[in-house]
Design a protein that fits this description.
The complex is a heterodimer of chains A (about 270) and B (about 350). Chain A is mainly α and about 270 residues long. Chain A folds into two domains: about 50 residues, no CATH class; about 200 residues, Orthogonal Bundle (MetI-like fold). In chain A, about 80% of the residues lie in helices and about 5% in strands. In chain A, a hairpin with a 2-residue loop joins strand 1 and strand 2. Chain B is of the alpha+beta class and about 350 residues long. Chain B is built from eight helices and 20 strands.
Chain lengths: ~270, ~350
């Protein structure tokens, strides 16, 4: 029987692969970081002037669009997370506990957006948003309805994985047999045990919203990504600073999700 | 339905429960085209431990879930202590339940799990603390209250689940195959502990199991279920010695199935005439004979057979022998009486009444 690839490579080979892969990811980021300190027209010089410009009151007008886009994106994050918490979580729970026969249908619907290119989805959203604008206005937060569809696969998976690791039906029945009504059963037993899955779903939702460009661009809304695109044409240095900051933020989010995945409550010392 | 939780025992003072009578009458339950319960009736006396025994799909868990209120029944009446609770939801039925799979809430410690039912009943904190400690002490886990479910063994988790089910002093304790996920030694130890606690508290208990040894060992009475009906209910001795049907004879304990000819109240099997249990039968029948009702003999009137194999069962030995017509018969005998394969032996049938089924 042939040895596994990892064993054949040996420890040093594995480290080499890891270093090359890390370098492939890190080099563009380091280049981006160095670019933010560059002086236009002087290749050898480094400066903090681009960072200072962000907080310079005199430049407020230049970066106003970017901060508005950032603010809009955070608003969309809040509404999209609310959609995940108020629509997706109850639906998944209801299906799991009451209508298990519907599980495959819900899974199919939730994973469907992965198979449809975003551009195609947006073409479908354009006429829908004529109605949405009529009902809710054309504020940026209304993009949350469209982005709520895009994030479905990313939000559904961690919740479903958490549910699959628990026997929520038996936990619910145990709670009911102990005298808990439907509301205490959900809020005191089921949801606390789905905390990790729900939190991961919310963090992934935030990551997707902050990276979303196509829908906002096609539906003519100003978000962090569209503002960044515009700024990049006039001030590439500050655009690079914000791109880097967004990448670091999402990286930290993913680290938090990873930590949540391995967390288990441990014994009290008392 | 807004029904206040019935409380048979006040939630103060030492942990004692007075047994209450449970009555199920004409319970029907279907899942789509599948009929799970066909008019089942069962009366459980106050403080009694009744086991529902049967193979998979016989309806025993459905009956328990109907009694608990987890599943609605299609027809029939369920009464606890004389009160019709057929339409009362599970959280208002005042039952304690232990499930087959470990059902401790993973985000809570053992003590918090036990405390949960008391919180739902709005018992004050000081009283809760006393009662939780009392319940954990009762199951021998007084020092494990701070541990989470994943820090406890399977047996310990089920003991915590038992404490959690009993701490509210329910009127009825329902056990849905609570031992089936445990290994053999822990299973025996825990079933004895459950029985001891049940006796001490005097709580009316219904216990579902597919393990006949478990049911016969712990229950006051055993209800053998088959295909959505109770085939027979009786003491373990009654079920074993006087089964009312071939199914019960076959399911409870081991039986040799031999060919015989019935003549009214008697049946002739292997040249020996045995009394028949139940109504008189005529003609060719299958005869159910327990392995311990067959013995080796030196008597020339015995039935000739040849030893096939022998299994050591601790204090006993079970030897399979082949009769002249090829029928295999199991003989249960003393472990010291060792028989070798191919050894010629003679068999003697004890004169106990036997169950027969027309062929």
């Amino acid at each position: 029987m042939s040895r596994p690839v990892g064993a054949a490579l040996g420890r040093s080979g594995a480290v080499a692969v890891l270093v090359v892969a890390a370098a492939a990811f890190a080099l563009p980021l380091v280049a981006l970081l160095l670019f933010t300190f560059r002086v236009s027209g002087d290749p050898g010089a480094l400066t903090l002037v681009h960072y200072a410009a962000i907080v310079d009151p005199a430049q407020e007008f230049t970066y106003d669009g970017l901060f508005r886009g950032l603010s809009n994106s955070l608003g969309i994050c809040v509404v999209t997370v609310a959609i995940v918490l108020l629509v997706l979580v109850p639906t998944v729970l209801l299906v799991e506990m009451r209508y298990p026969a519907m599980r495959r249908v819900v899974e199919f619907v939730c994973l469907l957006p992965l198979t449809v290119p975003t551009v195609v989805l947006v073409v479908g959203f354009v006429p829908v948003y004529k109605v949405v604008s009529g009902a809710f206005g054309s504020a940026a937060w209304t993009l949350a309805f469209a982005i709520g569809v895009i994030v479905l696969p990313y939000a559904y998976r961690p919740i479903q994985a958490n549910i699959a690791a628990l026997d929520v039906v038996v936990l619910g029945e145990a709670a009911r047999s102990l005298g808990a009504g439907a509301v205490p059963t959900v809020f005191r037993v089921i949801l606390p045990n789905l905390r990790r899955g729900i939190l991961s779903a919310c963090l992934l939702t935030v990551a997707v919203v902050l990276g979303e460009f196509t829908i906002a661009s096609f539906l003519s809304r100003t978000t962090f990504q569209t503002a960044l695109f515009l700024l990049q044409q006039s001030d590439p240095y500050v655009a690079a600073i914000f791109s880097l900051a967004a990448l670091v933020f999402v990286f930290v989010l993913l680290l938090v999700i990873g930590r949540l995945g391995s967390f288990r409550p441990s014994r009290r010392t008392s | 339905m807004n029904v206040p939780p019935p409380t048979a025992a006040p939630l103060t003072g030492p942990l004692t429960v007075t047994g209450t009578a449970v009555s199920l009458a004409g319970i029907h339950k279907s899942f789509g085209p599948h009929v799970a319960l066909r008019g089942v009736s069962l009366d459980v006396r106050p403080g009694e431990f009744v086991a529902l025994l049967g193979p998979s799909g016989c309806g025993k868990t459905t009956l328990l879930r109907a009694l608990s209120g987890l599943d609605r029944i299609d027809a029939g009446t369920i009464s606890i202590d004389g009160t019709d609770v057929s339409r009362v939801p599970v959280d208002k039925r005042d039952i304690g339940m232990v499930f087959q799979s470990y059902s401790l809430f993973p985000h809570l410690t053992a003590a918090q799990n036990v405390e949960f039912g008391l919180r739902m009943r709005k018992v004050d904190a000081a009283r809760r603390a006393v009662r939780v400690q009392e319940a954990l002490d009762m199951v021998g886990l007084g020092d494990r209250g701070g541990r989470y479910a994943h820090e406890l063994s399977g047996g310990q988790q089920q003991r915590v689940a038992l404490a959690r089910a009993l701490v509210t002093r329910p009127r009825v304790l329902l056990l849905d195959e609570p031992l089936s996920a445990l290994d053999a030694k822990v299973r025996v130890k825990l079933r004895e502990q459950i029985r001891r606690i049940q006796r001490d508290l005097g709580i009316t208990t219904v216990f579902v199991t597919h393990d006949q040894e478990e049911a016969l060992a712990v229950a006051d009475r055993v209800a053998v279920m088959h295909d959505g009906v109770i085939e027979q209910i009786g003491t373990p001795e009654e079920l074993y010695r006087r089964p009312v049907s071939p199914f019960v004879a076959d399911f409870v304990g081991l039986s040799n199935v031999l060919e015989g000819v019935a003549r009214g109240a008697e049946v002739e099997v292997c040249g020996r005439v045995l009394p028949v249990l139940g109504p008189p039968v005529e003609g060719d029948v299958s005869v159910y004979v327990r392995p311990e009702d067959v013995a080796f003999t030196l008597d020339s009137g015995g039935v000739d057979a040849t030893v096939v194999a022998s299994s050591f069962l601790g204090s006993l030995r079970r030897t399979s022998v082949r009769l002249a017509d090829g029928t295999i018969v199991a003989v249960q005998h003393d472990a010291s009486d060792l028989r070798e394969p191919d050894e010629a032996v003679r068999l003697r049938f004890a004169g106990y009444p036997v169950v027969v089924r027309p062929r």
